[in-house]
Design goal:
344 residues, 7-stranded parallel beta sheet, 11 helices, 2 domains, 5-stranded parallel beta sheet, alpha/beta
Length: 344
């Protein structure tokens, strides 16, 4: 990514910003507390609370049950919280999401009048780029076919294809897509990407870009491995349907690391069953955890992952939150929020 700071540099810079703001406000009125709330896995809330308190030692960060005066809370740090909980804080000014995906928050009426700030963490982009490369290589080197051969006790070598002859198409060229494009190019793949509005790369990067419906058709028609990294919006829901899947070359594969509803699952299964698609690597689903009765679990052409492509790192993400809070304390400016018209 262009001029991307290392994790250490990012941490140092944001910690410095938080410390400076703390010193500048030392003579002001006592700070309003921050509340941490959300749907956390067992033990996860404690990990986040510890990381956030380390990143913002000058702040009071409270669990939901620790808030004695809800009308004093101006900022909520959330992870897919119960909307009813947010209504308990009448003075809330803005909401900081710990996740990059904010479609659930944007869809909730309780958040309609609140700026929602999504998590944009360079470490998350690096982790996602690593996952995209790993599972692209999994498909590129025919790992699903070799696994099937092993189970059938077949000893057969498949033809090798050079990365330069394997065309990878990225749906989404935001922070995550841009990082993935660069990593794929470094590995030698032919890379192209599609976004809502045209995004241009440095010509030396070797990444072809497309936009609009015509651009989508063109990119998909020349893609061997389609990687979905788009946010979920009204426009992207079921974007990958039967019509789009039929435009892929025969034997293409699909990777979904964006959101489950980007793909119409019934159309995907039909394409896999018909043999038009070779394989699908799925990390996100319409319902999570994936129901036991889902046909995806045991489909021979599907790899199911438990939403692990790019977890948010509490240490680096807490520094991002600290920087946002420190700048707001210092200037009163709310960090750039989600564009509700676009959905991200």
């Amino acid at each position: 990514m262009k001029n991307e700071a290392s994790a250490a540099e990012t941490a140092t810079g944001l910690a410095g910003t938080a410390a400076d703001a703390g010193g500048a406000s030392g003579t002001r009125q006592p700070r309003s507390p921050l509340v941490l709330t959300g749907a956390f896995a067992p033990g996860e809330e404690a990990i986040w609370l510890d990381a956030l308190r380390r990143a913002m030692p000058e702040e009071r960060i409270l669990r939901l049950q620790e808030v004695a005066a809800p009308d004093e809370v101006e900022v909520a740090i959330v992870a897919n919280p119960d909307p009813a909980v947010v209504r308990r804080f009448p003075a809330l000014r803005w909401v900081q999401s710990l996740w990059a995906g904010v479609e659930k928050l944007v869809a909730e009426p309780a958040f309609a009048s609140l700026p929602v700030v999504r998590m944009i963490d360079p470490q998350l982009a690096r982790t996602m780029a690593e996952a995209v490369l790993a599972w692209t290589l999994y498909l590129h080197r025919d790992m699903p076919a070799y696994l099937a051969q092993q189970r059938a006790r077949q000893w057969r070598q498949l033809p090798y294809v050079a990365p330069a002859d394997r065309r990878v198409g990225l749906l989404g060229l935001g922070t995550l897509g841009e990082a993935a494009a660069h990593v794929l190019r470094q590995a030698g793949f032919s890379v192209q990407g599609w976004s809502r509005t045209l995004k241009r790369f440095d010509p030396q990067a070797g990444v072809a870009t497309f936009s609009g419906s015509d651009g989508l058709d063109e990119m998909v028609s020349r893609t061997d491995i389609l990687v979905c990294l788009l946010p979920l919006t009204r426009q992207t829901r079921h974007l990958v349907d039967g019509t789009l899947l039929r435009r892929l070359p025969a034997g293409a594969s699909v990777v979904n690391f964006g959101r489950g509803p980007l793909i119409r699952t019934s159309d995907l299964l039909a394409a896999l069953d018909a043999g038009r698609l070779a394989h699908a690597v799925l990390d996100v689903f319409d319902e999570e955890p994936l129901p036991q009765a889902s046909p995806l679990w045991l489909h021979p052409r599907v790899t199911v992952l438990p939403h692990i492509s790019a977890d948010t790192d509490p240490a680096t993400a807490s520094l991002i939150v600290a920087g946002n809070v420190a700048r707001w304390r210092h200037s009163g400016a709310i960090p750039p929020a989600v564009d509700r018209a676009r959905g991200y």
